[in-house]
Amino acid sequence: MDATIINTELEEQIVNEEFQKLIDAYLASKHRKKVEIITKAFNFAKHAHKGVRRLSGEPYIMHPISVAQIVCMEIGLGSTSICAALLHDVVEDTEYTVEDISNMFGPKIAQIVDGLTKISGGIFGDHASAQAENFKKLLLTMSEDIRVILIKIADRLHNMRTLGSQAVNKQYKIAGETLYIYAPLANRLGLNSIKTELEDLSFKFEHPEEYEEIERKLAATKLERDTVFDEFAAPIRAQLDELGLRYEIKQRVKSPYSIWHKMQTKHVTFEEIYDILAVRIIFEPEDVDTELNDCFDIYVKLCKIYTSHPDRTRDWVSHPKANGYQALHVTLMSQKGEWIEVQIRSRRMDDIAEKGFAAHWKYKDGDKTETASEQELDKWLATIKEILDDPQPDAMDFLDTIKLNLFASEIFVFTPKGEIRTMPAGSTTLDFAFSIHTFVGSHCIGAKVNHKLEPINYVLQSGDQVEILTSKSVHPTREWLNIATTAKATTKILSILRKEERELRKRGELMMDEFLASNDLLKETSIIDKLTHLHGFTKSDGLFVAIAEGKVQLGRTDLDALKGKEETRWKKLFSFGKKNVKQASPKETVGSNFDKKKAILLNEETIQSKYTLCECCKPIPGDKVMGYIDDDKHIQVHKLQCSTAERLKANHGNRVLAAKWEMGKVLLFPVSIYVKGFDKLGLLHKMTQVISQLHGINIRKLEVECENGIFECNIQMFVHDTKEVDETVSSLKEIQDVKEVSRV
Q1: Greater confidence, 367 or 189?
Q2: Strand 420-424 vs strand 625-629: parallel, antiparallel, or unpaired?
Q3: Residue 552 and residue 531: Cα distance in Å, rounded?
Q4: What is the pLDDT of residue 538?
Q5: Which of 9, 91, 574, 602 falls 20 to 30 Å from 714 in CA-CA distance?
Q6: Which range is least confidently modeled, 13-27, 144-158, 467-481, 588-602?
């Protein structure tokens, strides 16, 4: 028999087995059994994608099946979502239309497929305006039917699981986009396990060596963690048995990405992270009405055995997070002298924590009123709709505004009447004012917080009672944007300022028209451009606002320039300016035939003539880096974990290039080292000896501060690569009385 036929038959068998897995999982769920329509959707998608293969070489239909499996097994959605997942690429990739889907599967499935098609190909396109529009579409479809974004997250999860078949620059783009938007979205919708996997997969593809190192260390310390867990859990089991509850105690290990992120932000080593292990108690309540009491009964039992940390108890049971998360968190001192966090949840709470919003349906009985967490989700979606109502001229502002909502953890504050309100952590009194009403926010002069007068920039704490004070004479200013932290407040302030600027522009333009008319000059584009450049503005809008505010007064100098008396001098100045601009960007530009799939090589010649090492993160040989083609077609080189690079990967992924170093020890690069420890006589001498004599490194600058016996030191030095930095850091750590060393 022909090998091709055998392969085809084998593939057919694998496809059918994977589909059967999906059906078995669906039948095991509590959803109504609509196997017929799911089978119909599978056969339709299989026919539509016939003969098409993914980059990995497998039949394309395997992707929709995998997405449908995630939707069913990991998110817990029903037949409508499973069908939409199976059909999600049909309209985009084949000749079938949304109308065809509607005729065959009904309007609801067609609406979801249409929503998924609108946001296909990733959130972000090639241009900033397209990015904002695609993201708006995503959020609008999400607010119409939450299943659209849940299926899109499942689609992204499967793409991340199979990302290895993509080119390296594509991996950076997709991983960056995932960390920037999809992981926070999954978190906001309560999909904790998916959020964690998306973060870990992004980390694995961007920093494979660091990922493998953390995985290796986690495996090496597993036995030690298991021992700590067993000893810690044994007395807890004895106490819980007295309550007569059915329960299980599990250990939860911090994810590789969370560990790495903490190492980066706190400048600590793996060994210095003390919250890798946490404990989770999941119980079955006797009755749904006793659930809350059971949580606190368990808490009381725990506090009989171990001492609790007074500042680390979190009650998400009485006041669920906006994404529906409920649990009681308490941090206890173990008998080994270590703080261990314990999370207390019912089985229902655990389901919702892992599967998020989709798990709610399981616990709804008939047409009961919405749970508090669903109401919170509706509030969040309403906030997003409000933000979408305001036109955003700048796509990046829009994305950053939305991200304020995605990343925020929450606090609880009270109104003067005792009503509880959920606010993002870090919110100010100004944010709270805008959360009440736009009018209240735009006229806010301060607040009484716990009956004490506080300014608009006061940062609210959980439990604060807030009464907003207003005055009609107060109006938003640009400075307010530095005070506002929530998406709603920022959007409203920008909207008010833009409206005021529009009025100023109109007034300024009228004043300029009057000036030109009174001097017998026609209002022409060339004249407006000349006046704009003459007063140092890049756009005429800025000139109009300045005229209206009285910062620019048109007069004799302007007339001289317009009528030619100063023309020669002006031309000289302008051409000199252009020359300077050219000199400021000496690097070569990228030609149209540049191959983006190839990794750019960083060596002595290219970093001096072609590429720019960015000041924001100061990469040196050995750092994981990427290239980015800027607006002037020059290539910038950033560290992969640089905050600017993270934004560029997500928002301009099509311009991202893979990069690798091919440097000998020829060029020297500046780096900074931070050192902290106990101030002892001769310590500075030992440190400089280690750097200069042991490693032969030239110190460029050294700053030391000592206070109460503790010293802090910033050392700037020249090195060839990261290996020299790592060796220096290790040697400095070995000096007695030096307690912290990190590269800044």
Answers
A1: 189
A2: unpaired
A3: 11
A4: 77
A5: 602
A6: 588-602
Query: Rounded CA gap, 725 and 743, in Å?
Result: 8
Instruction: Give the separation between CA 449 and CA 633, rounded to whole angstroms.
Output: 52
Confidence of residue 52 (pLDDT cuts 50, 70, 90): confident
Quick check: 174 and 183 in contact, CB under 8 A?
no
Cα–chain center distance at 458: 25
Residues 6+ apart with CB under 8 A from 92: 117, 120, 121
* Structure tokens, 309: 């940390």
The residues assigned a catalytic role are: 92-93
Residue 478, in any domain of the structure = no
Judged against a pLDDT cut of 60, whether residue 516 lies above it is answered with yes
Query: Do 223 and 337 reside in the same domain of the chain?
Result: yes
Q: Report phi then psi at 82, rounded to 5.
A: -65, -45
Encoded tokens for 472: 């009609």
Four-point Cα dihedral 666, 672, 676, 678, nearest 10: 60
CATH number of 682's domain: 3.30.70.260
Distance between CA atoms of residues 588 and 580, nearest Å: 16
Q: Range of 260's domain?
A: 216-363
CA–CA distance, 192 with 186 (Å, rounded to integer): 7
Q: Does pLDDT of 561 surpass 80?
A: no
Q: Is 398 exposed, middle or buried (0-12, 13-18, 19+ CB in 10 A)?
A: buried
